[in-house]
Design goal:
Blueprint (H helix, E strand, L loop, with lengths): L16 H7 L2 H4 L3 H17 L5 H20 L11 H13 L12 H36 L5 E6 L2 E7 H24 L19 H7 L9 H6 L2 H27 L7 E3 L17 H24 L14 H21 L3 E3 L1 H10 L4 H10 L4 H18 L8 H7 L5 H4 L4 H7 L8 H25 L2 H10 L4
Antiparallel strand pairs: 1-2, 3-4
Length: 483
């Protein structure tokens, strides 16, 4: 069977071989072969059910497509080289297996709506896989937070010690950021629609049934405008943005761990299973894993920028420029999934140093705000309380001592409200326990945050199951009756 890509509809020889090779997307498209086979299976089902395709040809094509899908899943499918893209390669191989029936496969279909389907199926499969990883990590973070309620350490603003918090509160902060990023992944999946049947740009005059195909890919509905559909990469922008949000959320947690594992902070210790050595300095235990997670954010953000730049100013309908979406779209999933899995593996080997956390709180003035609020509870206006505690901090700095070391009599000399009951707020445990405002670091508030993380993990997993996996979609498509 001659190469479809090399032979034009008019019988001309077609594009020069060198130009065909240069413009081919086949190498990148090979990762979309399962999506292409499942999409073709759904298309054949629709053609047969509507009578556009003879039932016998439908059976032959579906059996061949299913066999090719199973081989692709097993990693044994071999597609011919030299074709323009994976769609043409699949059609050529299908012709070898199914004979003349393969010539009917492309009825009422263009590569424009075919690639639009394949890419959406890829986003759906990888997006659901990413959500499953996030659900696992959210559960792990909630469980870790539950075990760190009594571990205290400073929270930081401007990278300076700010206020005392529990390590559980810090872990919950990581979890909330990740859960919010998961929302963007869910949004990207919920916005996906079924593009097949849009044709080259204006639909088809044949009696196709787009609703049937959409039902096979439920919860999808058919896209609303064929011209927009074939030129649309909004879903790709949603996907790369969502994946970048996940990587950035994980990168912020990783950045905390990079800092906290240094000797300057020394708030966490890294186990030997995740610490990397130096090629020259034998004493080093480097947080390479977390630095790499942080660094992956650059590539994740670059994928978003690449697609925004690609789509800027493109005319309506399909343009070959859009073939350049592949690198960004196909990298987004593995990048985010890889970071989530790495964090799952690494976090159990991170230990909070409770003694160092207590020392860091004792050395600084992190309870100053808590002391000011203790005065406020006595009826002192906040700005007056703020100034009084500021003077107390100045005395401590000049004396080279901590706030807790200042005698009650000296404190009262600065402000009469600074008595023993107010100074009790300088105890870090008391300070943390007092912050029971919603979202605060107080024990009941943290308990609520842990419960929310577990609830979020369940919701994220449910969203993943709603959209399913490629295996589930394939089973549904290839089991659908042809008549």
């Amino acid at each position: 069977m001659p190469s479809i890509a090399r032979t034009s509809a008019t019988g001309d020889e077609g594009m020069l071989g060198e130009l065909l090779a240069w413009s081919s997307s086949l190498e990148l498209d090979r990762s979309l072969v399962r999506e292409d086979l499942v999409g073709s299976g759904a298309h054949v089902t629709m053609l047969a059910r509507t009578g556009i395709l003879p039932a016998h040809d439908g059976r032959v094509l579906r059996e061949a497509l299913r066999a090719m899908y199973d081989e692709a899943t097993a990693g044994t499918l071999v597609l011919p080289d030299g074709e323009e893209d994976v769609h043409m390669a699949v059609e050529v191989e299908l012709g070898r297996r199914a004979g003349a029936a393969a010539a009917r496969l492309h009825t009422a279909r263009s590569r424009n709506d075919q690639v639009a389907l394949d890419l959406r199926l890829h986003v759906r499969d990888r997006g659901a896989a990413l959500l499953r990883e996030i659900a696992t990590l959210l559960t792990a973070l909630a469980e870790r937070a539950a075990g760190e309620k009594d571990t205290l350490l400073p929270a930081y603003t401007h990278r300076q010690r700010a206020q005392p918090v529990s390590a559980a509160f810090l872990v919950c902060a990581w979890g909330v950021g990740l859960a919010r990023a998961a929302d963007t992944v869910g949004f990207a999946l919920d916005r996906l629609e079924m593009p097949l049947g849009s044709g080259a740009c204006s639909g088809s005059s044949l009696p196709i049934d787009r609703a049937l195909v959409a039902r096979l890919f439920a919860p999808w509905a058919p896209t609303r405008n064929a011209l927009h559909t074939v030129g649309d990469r909004d879903f790709a922008l949603d996907w790369t943005w969502a994946a970048a949000r996940v990587v950035l959320a994980l990168g912020r947690a990783a950045s905390d761990l990079v800092d906290f594992s240094t000797s300057e902070f020394a708030l966490v210790k890294l186990g030997g299973a995740i610490a990397a050595g130096s090629s020259m300095m034998p004493q080093k235990k480097n947080p390479d894993v977390f630095e790499l997670v942080r660094g992956k954010g650059a590539r994740a953000a670059a994928n978003v920028v690449a697609l925004l730049t690609l789509m800027k100013g493109l005319a309506s309908g399909y343009n070959r420029d859009q073939q350049e979406d592949r690198l960004a779209l196909l990298e987004a999933g593995p990048l985010a999934i890889g970071c989530a899995r790495v964090m799952q593996l690494a976090l159990p080997h991170v230990t909070f140093d409770a003694a160092r956390g207590a020392q860091a709180l004792a050395e600084g003035f992190t309870q100053a705000t808590d002391l000011a609020e203790a005065l406020v509870r006595k009826g002192v206006p906040f700005r007056e309380a703020y100034k009084a505690v500021g003077r107390l901090v100045a005395v401590a700095v000049e004396s080279g001592v901590s706030l807790c070391s200042i005698a009650a009599a000296d404190a009262r000399a600065i402000h009469p409200g600074l008595d023993e009951s107010a100074l009790a707020a300088l105890d870090p445990t008391t300070a943390v326990a007092a912050k029971e405002s919603a979202g605060g670091t107080g024990p009941r508030s943290v308990e609520a945050q842990i419960a929310w993380l577990l609830e979020s993990a369940r919701a994220v997993l449910a969203k993943a199951e709603q959209h399913g996996s490629m295996e589930q979609l394939a089973a549904r498509v290839f089991a659908e009756p042809l008549e």
